[in-house]
Automatic annotation (TrEMBL):
Organism of derivation: Elachura formosa
Family per similarity comment: Belongs to the CD200R family.
Source domain of life: Eukaryota
Segments traversing the membrane: 166-189
Gene3D superfamilies in the record: Immunoglobulins
Membrane topology, as annotated: Single-pass membrane protein
Domain Ig-like: 1-75
Record localization: Membrane
Identification of the protein by name: MOR1B protein
GO molecular function: signaling receptor activity
GO biological process: regulation of neuroinflammatory response
Length: 192
């Protein structure tokens, strides 16, 4: 006899009795089955796993040798959704949304001026947001590193095109064209 059960009331109970070649399921979803045939390998399979499946599970095996209990703890890891954006105040925003456990965020170049906040969601996931201001930066790019047990991601932002320097160059170029045009018109009208 092999029995899998989750340690809570009204939770799934999955069993197999070899002498009758009988399987039984109580309070189990379709996602909870035997990994292979319970006669050859009584491993439990939960697919797809979700946050509600987290918990402690017990496997009990009874045979002519005696009773054997095995305990297993299931922890669900959820990879975060990662984005890198910037706002008008020249602050880069690196966000690792709805991860479990929370992701770690770091920056290259490293800065003591970055800040971070965390939002806890009812389902047990966490969103971390890190802010990096580059107002006085001379670096051409900024890299956000997101570290998580399920995934590591590197996102790069090119600061040359997201900074206001480009705007200042365009304004300067427009002013230069305007000045040259004004001088040219002045010379043309004075020469007449």
């Amino acid at each position: 006899l092999v029995t899998w059960k989750r340690n809570c009331r009204s939770c799934c109970l999955l069993s197999y009795r070899r002498d009758y070649n009988e399987t039984s399921k109580q309070n189990c979803s379709e996602r909870t089955t035997w990994k292979y045939s319970p006669a050859s390998d009584p491993a439990l399979r939960i697919s797809p796993v979700n946050l509600g499946d987290e918990g402690n599970y017990t496997c009990e095996i009874v045979n002519s040798e005696g009773n054997f209990l095995f305990f297993s703890s299931l922890t669900v890891i959820v990879p975060p959704m990662v984005t890198l954006t910037h706002n008008k105040r020249r602050v880069a925003v690196c966000q690792a949304s709805a991860g479990k456990p929370p992701a770690d965020i770091s920056w290259i170049p490293a800065s003591n001026h970055s800040s971070e906040e965390e939002f806890h969601h009812p389902n047990g996931t966490v969103t971390r947001v890190s802010y990096f201001g580059w107002v006085n930066s001379s670096f051409p790019s900024l890299t956000c590193l997101v570290t998580h047990p399920a995934t590591n991601q590197t996102l790069v932002m090119d600061l040359r095109y997201t900074s206001h320097r480009l705007l200042y160059i365009l304004i300067g170029a427009a002013a230069s064209v305007g000045a040259v045009t004004a001088v040219t018109l002045c010379l043309i009208f004075r020469c007449r």
